[in-house]
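Hi L.,

You mentioned the student needs an example of a multi-chain input paired with its predicted structure. This one should do, with 133 residues in total across all chains.
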Amino acid sequence: MYRQQILDHYKNPRNYGDVDDATFEHVGENPMCGDTIKLFVNLEDDDETIAGISFIGDGCAISQASASLLSTELQGMTLEAVRDMDRDDIVEMLGVEISPMRIKCAVLAEKVVQDGAAIYVGDKELDETTTET
Ligand code: FES
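Structure written out for the whole complex:
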């Protein structure tokens, strides 16, 4: 059973929608199921603090709720802090036990924003994130 928070974010995703003027955007896929998430990140004038995130996507409750939760939780964080996050941070944010089968669902959005940040600062070259890497 999913906790109420996950169902709420799945049914009523926060910050859902694409934007034309994002500082950067990035897309990722879980190749096991084909579910996708595309994130749009806007930075403050300091070029490192997240002013806002929105997303579009298609997938299971955990993947989409995780993107929705991240879009609210990462506001005000620096790109460096985002890149330091790990899967435990996502599991804690979701507030439920995540089975090994579903962990890729949970971390898809995190990996997308982390790769997007790495590409933006010039540390990575990548067209699309997958949960396989
Ligand atoms: Fe595809 Fe969860 S089943 S990301």
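You could point out the following to them. The chain has one domain: 4-130. The chain has a mean pLDDT of 95.

Best wishes,
N.
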